[in-house]
Amino acid sequence: MALDKMEKLNLEDKMIRTELCEVEGIPLAEPICSIWNQVWNFKARPDDLLIATYAKAGTTWTQEIVDMIQQNGDIEKCKRASTYRRHPFLEWYMPGPSPNGYSGLELAEAMPSPRTMKTHLPVQMVPPSFWEQNCKIIYVARNAKDNLVSYYHFHRMNKALPDPGTMEEFMEKFMAGKVLWGSWYDHVKGWWKAKDKHRILYLFYEDMKENPKREIQKIMKFMGKDLEQEVLNKIIHNTSFEIMKENPMANYTKDFVGLMDHSVSPFMRKGVVGDWKNYFTVAQNKKFDEDYNKKMANTSLVFRAEL
Ligand SMILES: *[C@@H]1O[C@H](CO)[C@@H](O)[C@H](O)[C@H]1NC(C)=O
Ligand SMILES: *[C@@H]1O[C@H](CO)[C@@H](O)[C@H](O)[C@H]1NC(C)=O
Ligand SMILES: *[C@@H]1O[C@H](CO)[C@@H](O)[C@H](O)[C@H]1NC(C)=O
């Protein structure tokens, strides 16, 4: 009996989970490939702001900071909608009824200016209109090991993503770039290179943890905003992990029900630097580092995996 039930659950799990497809060698979720031409031809406007990250690098956190800055610290205004509706997720597409059915493009197109959007695309796949319009872009990067661990747990709890397998299996896929949105290594390096040619503010998750005030001030400056100390303090407080975890407009508990299972692993899980140490064995760490050093040899980009 119990086994029957488990098999049935496993089957349901497999039926929901999306398969990967590829565009220009980058693994994406199958529905995204089906609308790729529309994503590529997206018409950016000059006052669009794009928040770009590799998945699980501090995206929602940065979105909340940006929204609070835009709303001059007005919490009520920030509560107007869930994160994914305030800032359309540009390339994300899931067919079906709302809210699990979701088209970032449709939301973005219907949104009045000035718009803020989110993307996980590697730099070479960003729709060309963003460069043509010289849009401002905020990129956030997180050290590979914590990013990997967070991405693993996110795959476990989010049935819109492929089954991650074991941590060991996922680690192999991550190192090979055979995960959704492709190679972490190419992602962070590609955007790092692009920042010298475009209006890109390149931030690090670890810096944001270490000194949120300093990093929020950088974001404010980049956005051309000058807010009073009192407002800044409010932004620091209300975008802290502890507060955001309890913010129903940011913690995804009431969205994507049936897709995200917070009892498996909450969307806002730990929000710390160095949690990878609880997951990497000594042997895995050695192997990961050797591979990392090869892949990161041709960049000046340096990460901190502990504070
Ligand atoms: C902002 O912080 C205040 C003070 O802790 C809290 O009462 C409020 O619920 C927070 N707002 C949001 C949207 O998290
Ligand atoms: C999300 O926020 C709501 C409202 O504060 C809270 O009840 C819930 O426990 C939070 N969800 C998670 C997974 O932390
Ligand atoms: C680094 O090398 C890899 C493979 O050799 C290449 O694909 C990538 O474009 C290079 N990156 C930079 C930033 O030069």
What spatial order of strands do you see in the largest sheet? 6-3-7-8
Mean residue pLDDT:
94
Put simply, the count of helices is: 16
What share of residues is helical? 40-55%
Q: What fraction strand?
A: 5-15%
Shape, principal axes of CA atoms: globular
The CATH architecture classification of the domain at 26-147 and 181-253 is: 3-Layer(aba) Sandwich
Major sheet size, sense and barrel closure: 4 strands, parallel
Bound ligands, named by name, code or SMILES: 2-acetamido-2-deoxy-beta-D-glucopyranose
Could you spell the SSE succession in H and E letters?
HEEHHEHHHEEHEHEHHHEHHHHH
Estimated structural class: alpha/beta
Unreliable stretches, pLDDT < 50, 5 or more residues? none
Number of strands: 8
CATH topology of the domain at 26-147 and 181-253: Rossmann fold
Please tell me how large the radius of gyration is.
19 Å
| Superfamily (CATH H level) name of the domain at 26-147 and 181-253 | P-loop containing nucleotide triphosphate hydrolases
Give the termini separation.
49 Å
InterPro entries: P-loop_NTPase, Sulfotransferase_dom
Subcellular location: Cytoplasm
EC number: 2.8.2.-
Domain Sulfotransferase: 46-299
